[in-house]
Amino acid sequence: MTVLHLADEGEAADLAAFLGRLLHYDRGAAVRLQAHGTALAVFGRPPSFEVLAIRAARLAKPYENGLDAALDVTVSAGELLESVDESAATLTVPAAVTGPPWAGVLPPRGGWRPEPGLPAPDALRAMVAAAVAEFRSRTGELAPELRTRPELDRIGREIWTRTVGDTHLPVRAVHAAQSLGFLRPESSGDTRLALVSSGPWLRLRTPYGSIAVRRAGLGSLDVSVR
Hints:
Blueprint: E1 2-5, H1 9-25, E2 30-36, E3 39-44, E4 52-58, E5 70-76, H2 77-83, E6 90-93, E7 113-114, H3 121-140, H4 149-160, H5 171-179, E8 194-198, E9 201-206, E10 209-214
Helix pairs in contact: 1-2, 3-4, 3-5
């Protein structure tokens, strides 16, 4: 049994909130954990958004488990959430599960460079609100016989694949950031909100987590398989 000691109760609470949001979109969600030194990264993929969500957390002490200096395992998000003890700031790593395909293709650890053109946080939140309102308006205007799943999906794809400002970031990535608690109002003046790229990957970084998408799609040869 591997127990991870998080830096404080706040890290445990934020991680639990992130896992809860992932499970809201997929009750059977799996997450990939990577720990090295005092850093823990939790990767998840909420199916509604088709993006990769990354929540980082600080550990109270460098990870070690016998001779292993690093942890890399895919587990049930529900079991992991149940193991989080916020008052003790600990979590117990559940048994490994067979990971979904996305878990084998992660963004690179390094090589990220800034991308220009990202609007301010307030403008990003307004953009998401406008997109949600447009989706509701357009689907609400459909005649009952036309309100089919394919038509709803078509309208959704049209709206959420639009790009943000002068960037290549799809609006769905910003929607995911807000829905997962990464784009909070208090981040408005935080310089850590940024858009970066590495190869085919785009990454929206916020103080509370990151959203990564592949511009070239998962079929590209330029992937990072771990």
